[in-house]
Amino acid sequence: MNTSNEKRLAGETAIRYVEDDSVIGVGTGSTVAYFINALADIKNRIQGAVSSSEQSTQQLKSHGIKVLDLNAVGPLSLYVDGADECDPHKRLIKGGGAALTREKIIAAASGTFVCIIDSSKQVDLLGKFPLPIEVIPMARSHVAREISKRRGQPVWRDGVVTDNGNWILDVHGLSIIDPLGLEAELNQIVGVVSVGLFAKRPADVVLVGDRTL
Ligand code: 5RP
Question: What's the rounded Cα separation, in Å, for the pair 123 and 54?
């Protein structure tokens, strides 16, 4: 099966986890776009969505799905989002679409995180996909130097500004043997807003197409 078919199947299969009258946490990306399209078909069964990006907000609103503020709705039962890499422990690299900070916030505030991917995202060891890190703009060079000391090669995603007004460094050349430790360590660098490593809060369910892991 090709990649886009697997993404579409994963997005459509995730609808099974949606409970009536609930508010759904919605991620960002091309796989999530299929989920939003499927959510539109049952929009009268839900109260609305909390969105992780301006991109998803626009798509949700174009379908007439209400977009709600996380502060106003409290903890969510379900968050559905894609990933750039997923290991056998459901730990993820995310942020290819630069939405990692809001994605991480919603994942942390949700009971069940359903991650929707195609099979190309499955890896044994995280780190082949460059690890996105959101940084405060004035701290870009400082954070880059700190990462270089840890044997990563940071590359500024020049021209990209996140929805929070920050910048992205993509860190190449990492073999992430201890995802939890690296996430904690990188979070300590002054100027880092968030790290696209989802190890402390991994996915609960991973759908590869319509296959559940
Ligand atoms: C956005 C993300 C996406 O979930 C990730 O990049 C996967 O995207 P796609 O579904 O388009 O392959 O983390 O910040």
Answer: 29
- Model confidence pLDDT, tens digit, residues 18-43: 999 999 999 999 999 999 999 999 99
Residue 96 CA: nearest ligand 1 atom is 6
- The atom number, within ligand 1, closest to the CA of 29 reads 11
Instruction: Count CB-CB contacts under 10 A for residue 148.
Output: 12
Structure tokens at 212: 């559940």
Q: Is 168 a residue whose pLDDT tops 90?
A: yes
Which residues does 44 contact at the CB level (< 8 Å), separation at least 6? Answer: none
Domains of the chain from N-terminus onward: 3-122+201-212 (3.40.50.1360), 131-196 (3.30.70.260)
DSSP SS3 for 113: strand
> Quick check: CB of 82 below 6 Å from ligand 1?
yes
The reply to whether 103 belongs to the active site is yes
